[in-house]
């Protein structure tokens, strides 16, 4: 299946989860140690804009990866999600190289690989938002299966301990856990369900 279809479904699920956020929730902690829920939503919104710009050939512009503070972060997130989904759906996008300065590599990435990065990021960030809200989030099994080889391809090691690293060091997944829980553990999340500890 086209990676864009997986990405679109993961993004749509994240929009549905973010829609549950109320103003009083924005100070809640998240699995991303550096961000409360407001910070996480700002990051997610900015990344949508950055990936959309990369799909449009403007990923090298650092301003494309920033989003101004929004008076309504839920609405701003939904709008950014629509923008990136439309950018990925544009004719010829799979033939383009995506410049992703936030990954720390100057050379353009093949579109399928770049969209795969976006897909796994938003599959996991949907869970991050759910965890902050104390809601279980279990994506469709085929999304977890599609994410697994991407998660395995993300390098592990000391760089994940650096400030600003996209993922924490991988954790062991207990035997018998779901594929999605394995994805979470591989990307440094503790696959615990329910409210944050």
Automatic annotation (TrEMBL):
Gene3D superfamilies: dinb family like domain
Sequence ranges assigned to domain Mycothiol-dependent maleylpyruvate isomerase metal-binding in this UniProt record: 8-130
Pfam families assigned: MDMPI_N
Transmembrane feature ranges: none
SUPFAM superfamilies assigned to the protein according to its UniProt record, in alphabetical order: DinB/YfiT-like putative metalloenzymes
Name listed for the protein in its UniProt record: TIGR03086 family metal-binding protein
Native source species: Microbispora maris
């Amino acid at each position: 299946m086209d990676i864009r279809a997986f990405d679109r479904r993961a993004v749509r699920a994240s929009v549905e989860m973010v829609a549950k956020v109320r103003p009083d929730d924005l100070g809640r902690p998240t699995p991303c140690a550096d961000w409360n829920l407001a910070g996480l939503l700002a990051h997610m919104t900015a990344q949508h804009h950055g990936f959309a710009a990369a799909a449009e050939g403007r990923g090298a512009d650092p301003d494309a990866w920033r989003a101004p503070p929004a008076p309504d972060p839920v609405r701003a997130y939904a709008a950014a999600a629509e923008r990136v989904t439309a950018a990925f759906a544009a004719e010829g996008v799979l033939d383009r190289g995506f410049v992703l300065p936030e990954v720390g590599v100057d050379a353009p990435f093949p579109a399928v690989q770049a969209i795969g990065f976006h897909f796994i990021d938003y599959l996991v960030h949907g869970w991050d938002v759910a965890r902050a809200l104390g809601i279980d989030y279990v994506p469709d099994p085929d999304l977890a299966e599609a994410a697994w080889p991407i998660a395995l391809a993300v390098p592990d090691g000391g760089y994940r301990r650096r400030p600003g690293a996209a993922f924490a060091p991988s954790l062991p997944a207990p035997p018998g856990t779901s594929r999605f829980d394995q994805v979470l553990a591989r990307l440094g999340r503790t696959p615990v369900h329910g409210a944050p500890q």
